[in-house]
Amino acid sequence: MKKNLPAVILAAAVILASCASNSVSAVSSESKNSGQTAFSENLPSKNSKKNLFKGKGIAVAVCQPEISGTEKNEEWISQYFQDSLTTKFSRFSKMTVLDRKNESLIKAEQELSESGYYSDENAAQIGQLTNAQIVVIGSIRKIAGSYEVNFRANDVTTNEIRASTDGRYSASEIQSGKAVSKTAESLLEGLGIEFTDKEKAAFAESDQNENSSIMNLAKGNSAKENDSLIEALAAYSQVGGKWTWQYEAMSNSSQIISGSFNPVGILAKIDSYSAKIEHWNKIFSQLEEYMNENSMFIVYDFSYVKDNNINMQKRTADLEIHPGIKCVPNAVAMKVWAKVMNEWKPLSEDRNNNVWIKSVSKPVFGAYEGGRYTAERWVPYSLRYVFTVNVGLFDDDGYLIKKFKVNADSDEGFIARDGGFIVDEVVPKPQRNYFSGGKWKTVYFEGINADDLKHGMNFRVIDAKTEIFSRQGRVYKTPAAILSREEFIQEYPF
Q: Of the chain's two ends, which shows fewer C-beta atoms within 10 Å, N or C?
């Protein structure tokens, strides 16, 4: 990913942002001149069935909900709900929706949310500051592993609660978009917004690509706020969909990588160099930790069992389990590594940076390649890795009958090669290519006593580890997430 966007694209983004801003401002200006109109005055007549009521002429502000009882790594849920509700309100109504970046909404939230909670009185004040007739406020509270979600839509022109909804959702219902879809649908229906049959079906089936983009943008912003820079980059790398979402993700990624250094004078330069060293040491330290924890998956599929070498005298048989096990690189981790290293490369090659760049501690994860025919380069992986997986044969009562260790070398390295030498840039592959590129390793169990199988038979991965070997003989041991084939495809769709 290039550091600077092309000028044409940037210009287009500015124009789009300006158009969106003007749209909201025009409504706000109109409201100022004519005074706020009560929501009830905009309701459709009983005989207007042909033209479904969509709330045209009404401005709505969706505030960031209060969140409590969660861990730091769950704080993204608040922005996720705000952005998701904003998106669905815009799609399924003709109301003018003030999004998270609206200047008047930002100012109102900053002035009124010192406690992190919006009261009905706050809603009225937000309406006055933003010229919105409807203000949506809410709260999300984690209790005993589930999430209590409460939202209400206040008509600030009449001081009435026009719609409210509450529900209790699991973590999977939050991440899948089910919780936010139900919340949005209830609020819009409560506001009198009528849906076509097609729109009702669209609510029932959440757009997973859209949901993933909104969620990862929120995760990235939350991680960035908590100074978890590499986690933020990993989340931003998975943002697709609307250009506005992608632009924010790319812009924030660039801010993380480049930092902000504008030295003037000798003392300022020295301070700037110190800041750059601290900045890159932080990035590389977090990158090393992230890669060591997230670089690989162990995927298993034990769908077919074949028996061999049946011995009737001993009442034993050998078992083959297919397809078996494979080690799969994490495409997101590859993207993160490539992003950081591709930004680092021009800095390290610029002689003007020699005064500070030698003080940066590069990540030890991976192999440091150099020699007569190649420039010194940092690459994410050496040419070889191995994985070790312990698979257990259990009966239905959970009793371990036998354990088998699977050892396998890599089929290919994770780095690009050109003529046998390491190339400068790491170009990540799509996750589907990483998955299909590796070979399955068959699992064998020898001499299984038939009497041990009276209470059933099933196979489970007990534990797994991977080892990466550099050309210098160094070994890096890394954990690996263990997923079934079905879990892997569901969590990391092709």
A: C
- Looking up tokens 């002429």 gives 57
- Domain segments of the chain: what residues? 7-206, 272-491
What are the backbone angles phi and psi of residue 234, rounded to the nearest 5°?
-65, -40
The whole-angstrom separation of Cα 218 and Cα 460 is 35
How far apart CA 231 and CA 488 sit, in angstroms, is: 20
Q: E strand or H helix at 298, and its extent?
A: strand 296-311
Helix, strand and coil content of the chain, in percent to the nearest 5, comes to 45, 25, 30
Q: What is the CATH number of domain 7-206?
A: 3.40.50.10070
> What per-residue string of b and e applies to 238-275 under the rule 16 or more CB within 10 Å gives b?
bbebeeebbbbbbebbbebbeeeeeeeeeeeeeebbee
| C-alpha distances out from residue 490 to 216, 241, 391, 460, Å | 16, 19, 23, 19
The pLDDT tens digits along the chain (494 residues) read 333 434 433 344 333 343 433 333 333 333 333 345 555 555 555 545 556 899 899 999 999 899 999 999 999 999 999 999 999 999 999 999 988 887 777 777 777 666 556 677 777 788 888 889 999 999 999 999 999 999 999 998 888 999 999 999 999 999 999 999 999 999 999 999 999 888 888 887 778 889 999 999 999 999 999 999 999 999 999 998 888 899 999 999 999 988 766 555 677 778 888 989 999 999 988 988 888 788 788 899 999 999 999 999 999 999 999 999 988 888 898 888 888 888 888 888 888 888 898 899 877 654 434 433 333 344 444 445 678 899 999 999 999 999 998 887 654 444 443 333 333 455 677 888 888 877 898 999 999 999 998 889 999 999 887 776 554 555 556 677 899 999 998 877 66
> Amino acid letter at 485?
R
Cβ-in-10-Å burial (0-12, 13-18, 19+) of 333 comes to buried
CA atoms within 13 A of residue 366's CA, in its CB half-sphere = 25
φ, ψ of residue 111 to 5 degrees: the values are -75, -30
- Lookup: tokens for 390: 């312990």
3-state secondary structure 411-453: CCCCCCEECCEECCCCCCCCHHHHHHHCCCEEEEEEEEEHHHH
**181 in Cβ contact with 88 (< 8 Å):** yes
∠ CA 207-208-209, rounded to 5°:
95
CA separation for the pair 218, 232 (Å, rounded): 9
Residue 76 CA from chain centroid, whole number: 10
